[in-house]
Amino acid sequence: MSYVEKLLKYQEEDEKLLKVERELSNSPERKNLVQAVNFVTKATEKLEALDGKALSLEATFKELDEKYAEVAETLAEFDNLEELLEGGADISFYKKNISQITDKLKSLKQDIAALNKAIKESNEEFQNLYAKNRTMQKQGKEFQETYEKLKAEKRKESEIIKVELSKLAQDIAPEVMQRYQMKRSERIFPILCPAKDGRCSKCGYELSLAGKEKLSSGGVVECDNCHRFVYKG
Ligand SMILES: [Zn+2]
Predict the structure, then answer these.
(1) What number of other Cβ atoms are within 10 A of residue 166's Cβ?
(2) Which of 26, 68, 88, 193 has the most other CB atoms within 10 Å of its CB?
(3) Residue 177 lies in a domain
């Protein structure tokens, strides 16, 4: 068997391994698991952010609440207004003051109501997301188990093919095998392809003159474009 034939036989067997690998990576079992993990990761980040937001809203609420109490207290000072007026105080001055303070209180009350609404909404968002996240975490565990089962099955299939591959590799020069495996890890497949009209049959790139010569003497050249091994077809 020629060196190209040996490599082609190896590649044929290797394609079976690739198929098993792809079946696992494209499986709905893996897709489900990845989706669940992504959801939980994002939801956890969002929950943390909402938690931080809740703290800052509460702090603002406390500030406004204190300010409201403070302003309300100022207003209480005018309770003895009658006495003050009897004492000859200027009524227009107090009227103006009271109206200003009342306006301030009104505006503070509005701010507090808006803040309360924001706190309530943020809290609801947190609760909803928390519940969803819990459900997804549980589901994710189930997905993980199903995926692990499939993975174990595929591993068994792979092991059988790998035994066959290592037998075939014994007939191939180690440096050639090494280059083959390198391309395999770069997700190039098929790694070997025949030449067609002096071009790589996979990507159509023209081979160099030296490359063409090497092919006619039974050698293998690397395509300058897609880096596959090209042999005489
Ligand atoms: Zn090519």
Answers:
(1) 9
(2) 193
(3) no
- SS3 at position 104: helix
192 part of a folded domain: no
- Cα(217) to ligand 1 centroid in Å equals 20
Full DSSP string of 36-52: HHHHHHHHHHHHHHHHH
- Give all strands of the β-sheet with 229-231 in edge-to-edge order: 199-200, 192-196, 229-231, 221-222
Q: Which domain holds residue 118?
A: 27-152
Q: Is residue 224 part of a domain?
A: no
Q: Summarize pLDDT for 81-119 with one digit per residue, the tens.
A: 778 778 777 888 888 888 999 999 999 999 999 999 999
CA atoms of 93 and 193, how far apart (whole Å): 98
Residue 36 lies in a domain: yes
Q: What is the pLDDT of residues 207-229, one digit of tens each?
A: 999 999 999 888 899 999 999 99
For ligand 1, the distance from its centroid to the CA atom of residue 206, given in whole angstroms, is 8
**CATH number (domain holding residue 101):** 1.10.287.1490
> How many domains in the chain?
1
CA of 25 to the centre of ligand 1 (A): 26
Query: Rounded distance, CA 132 to CA 147, Å?
Result: 22
Helices 3-25 + 174-185 axis angle, to 10: 30
| CA 227 to ligand 1 center in whole angstroms | 6
